[in-house]
Design goal:
The chain is mostly beta strands and 294 residues long. The chain is 3% helix and 39% strand. It is built from one helix and 23 strands. The protein has one helix at 286-293, and strands at 9-10, 34-35, 48-54, 60-67, 70-77, 87-88, 98-103, 109-113, 127-131, 143-144, 154-159, 165-169, 179-183, 185-186, 189-190, 194-195, 205-211, 217-223, 232-239, 245-250, 261-266, 272-277, 280-285. The strands form six sheets. The chain has a four-stranded antiparallel β-sheet with strand order 2-23-22-21. A hairpin with a 5-residue loop joins strand 19 (232-239) and strand 20 (245-250). InterPro entries: 6-blade_b-propeller_TolB-like, WD40. It comes from Chitinophaga niabensis. Pfam families: PD40.
Length: 294
């Protein structure tokens, strides 16, 4: 049985601006929402494709593909001319699922998995894990993010521009089935997670947080709200003048459908907004998004 740990995790953070050179597929979306890299990421095959995460240098794109209810993280690389066929990321496990890739400010790749912590661990919940890039281009063995994980499920990691870690969890003491939490970055350490409160969290399931560049609003998925269009819809939450979460509203019919919308993400340069819907990864210009949400 896993035990709740409140130990702080010391993180070696990268300094200075990222050297970004993202070669976005042409033509980029204008004021519309379209599938991202059809045939490579949005496969249209017998799979569900979701998530979006560019590497810190912008040369690789990570996402998740679900086949026969097993989640596997895939990656497509930019080879100087085009984005390559997506392949399984090297750290995937042959038995356990891995999903929700996200790069942290330390350059590590975070994700969720039902990997056991130890050989004797029989609890099949999802935890947040991470791998470190190695000098030879490979990844380290997965490590459990002990600072935030519990005996309950934790999933969908998202980092704010300030380095704070947002995620969802079904741990006890919340307002619903799954709540949103923040683990603040304090002097290079991730602190004990805090619930985002009843303005954000409902009696149902709230997950997949995504912070704006100024951290003044957040887009996330909320499930089974009475005004919802589908099972899970995208919602926008704003902070008030005191930095507290206040207004929450649906993103409306431009984004939400009768199915499920989730996995919100801003590209590292904040030029584009991504989310997942109808088995595919979608994208649009952030400038177009801001016109809608203002």
């Amino acid at each position: 049985m896993k035990k709740v740990l409140v130990l702080l995790l010391i993180i070696p953070f990268c300094k200075g601006p990222r050297d970004l050179s993202i070669h976005y597929p042409a033509p980029p979306p204008e004021d519309s929402i379209v599938s991202f890299l059809p045939g490579i990421v949005s496969s249209g095959a017998d799979s569900i494709d979701f998530n979006a995460a560019f590497s810190p240098d912008g040369q690789s794109f990570y996402f998740t593909r679900s086949v026969n209810r097993k989640w596997t993280i895939y990656v497509s690389h930019y080879d100087g001319k085009q984005w390559t066929k997506a392949i399984r990321a090297g750290f995937n496990d042959t038995v356990y699922s891995m999903a929700d890739p996200a790069f942290g400010p330390d350059g590590y790749l975070y994700f969720i998995s039902d990997l056991p912590r130890t050989a004797s661990d029989t609890l099949r919940d999802f935890d947040i894990w991470f791998v470190k890039p190695l000098a030879d281009g490979r990844w380290s063995a997965p490590e459990n993010l002990l600072a935030v994980n519990t005996d309950s499920t934790e999933y969908y990691v998202s980092f704010s521009p300030g380095g704070h870690l947002y995620f969802a969890s079904s741990r006890t003491g919340g307002y619903g089935l799954e709540d949103l939490y923040i683990s603040k970055l304090v002097e290079g350490k991730y602190s004990q997670p805090e619930n985002l409160g009843p303005k954000i969290n409902t009696p149902y399931s709230d997950h997949d947080p995504c912070l704006s560049q100024q951290e003044d609003f957040m887009i996330y998925t909320s499930v089974d709200r009475k005004e919802g269009l589908g099972e899970g819809d995208l919602y926008l939450a704003r902070k008030d003048a005191n930095g507290q979460w206040s207004e929450v509203r649906s993103m409306g019919t431009l984004f939400n459908t009768s199915t499920y919308e989730y996995c919100s993400y801003f590209s590292p340069d904040f030029k584009y907004f991504f989310f997942s819907s109808r088995r595919d990864v979608k994208w649009m210009r952030t400038a177009s998004l801001l016109k809608i949400v203002q």
